[in-house]
Amino acid sequence: MVVSLWIAVLWASLSEPTRKAEAPTTSQVVNALRLVVASGQAAPGGGSFDRFDVGSQPIVAPVNSRGQIAFYASLARAKAAEGIFLATASGITKAAAVGDAVPGGGVLSEFARHPLPALNDAGKIAFGASVAGARANEGIFLVVEGRLKVIALSGMDAPGVRSGTFAEFDTPVLNNRDEIAFVGTVRRGRETLQVLYLYSGGALRKLVASGDVAPRGGTFDRFGLPAINNKGVVAFPAVVEHGAILGGIFVVGASGLNVLVGAGETAPGGQMLVRFSERAAIDDDDNVAFVAHLGSSAASEALLVANAGGLTQLAVTGEPAPGGGRFSAFGPWPNFGRDGTIAFVAGVDDAPGPLGIYIGGAGAIRRVAMVGDRLANGAFLPALALNSVTSAGSDGSLTFATMTNPEQGRNGIYYYGPPGS
């Protein structure tokens, strides 16, 4: 398999208890961080927040330009077992929860298969969820000012696939034009295939499907999670069968379907790109950021940016990390922030802590936080959550999750960004 669709092996270290920092200096004090929500905190509507993750899936808490943060949570001692929530400067509100009515019939029954909400600058939230009490058993939804809107449901006709019906859905992504991209599993007779869809202007449109001809030959087989920018251009990793390349990072938009980088190509450092992370990121200038494995060594990774002009390498394992130590691995989901900067999680050797949050561009990366950093209240930043990722906003803010109590699996979600947001 060329597209890794991985959850990287380094993340076993994330569940370990926090290492005690040695005599933190003033430079280690992280004054810009604040805790957004934590396990045990009272939840809107009753009960308390329990966890913000499901199994080994990453905790994704997207933040927008207004400092609003969307997140999934399971609940304790509450009427609803789980839900999607929105944190703002004035508090936390429910966006959707188990038991909420679905337009057309049925109720939301579970978020566990899709606990990764998408958020835009208007505060709208897209997500996937299971459905009970209706013909459909799952769907893709958009929350607009507290109202639930159906984007797609299982059992519906699948546009662009003759005699096809939706069967399952993967995690959706959302832009500021309320366009939603997602990979759906479509049933056609006795066969099933993956199809990448775009919801735009109130209608669903097929972008590319398993079996379609890929650039440079061969046919698409499987897709990773897509990313979408505010122009409606979608980037996605994919596996290709019987082609000149066996996989790569592709983009589809107004200019058609193109491959940005393929497996087997050479990275700027001279090593071969072997396989790619399960999710890329794209900005409004059509730059695409992703993580790739290099050469034959499973431990050799690079954080790269691809565009029509070629490849740029931002960081590679083994090189010095800002703030001390050397990069040892990268989280699988980089994010674009303000002015083309990229936020990412990295494992670090010989540093004050085992994991750090970084942001920047080529030659100008800085460390935002590291496990063991001292917070403004005098406490230390706990271990990052299992399979940790960071979500970046266009205003320079970002979020990430920690294990506030590793022994009991308790979580906290942190915000870093402009004060008062």
Biggest sheet architecture: 5 strands, antiparallel
Question: Rounded to an integer, what's the Rg over CA atoms?
Answer: 21 Å
Low-confidence stretches: 1-31
Protein structure class:
mainly beta
User: Share of helix among residues?
Assistant: under 10%
- Report the sheet-strand fraction: over 45%
Mean pLDDT level: 89
Q: What's the overall geometry?
A: globular
Number of helices: 0
Distance, first to last CA:
42 Å
Number of extended strands: 36
Ordered list of secondary-structure elements with their pairings:
Layout: E1 29-30, E2 33-38, E3 48-51, E4 69-76, E5 82-88, E6 91-97, E7 107-110, E8 118-119, E9 125-132, E10 138-144, E11 147-153, E12 164-169, E13 173-174, E14 180-188, E15 191-200, E16 203-209, E17 219-223, E18 227-228, E19 234-241, E20 247-253, E21 256-262, E22 273-276, E23 281-282, E24 288-294, E25 301-307, E26 310-316, E27 326-330, E28 335-336, E29 342-349, E30 355-361, E31 364-370, E32 374-375, E33 383-384, E34 390-392, E35 398-405, E36 410-416
Parallel strand pairs: 1-32
Antiparallel strand pairs: 2-36, 3-4, 4-5, 5-6, 7-9, 8-9, 9-10, 10-11, 12-14, 13-14, 14-15, 15-16, 17-19, 18-19, 19-20, 20-21, 22-24, 23-24, 24-25, 25-26, 27-29, 28-29, 29-30, 30-31, 33-35, 34-35, 35-36
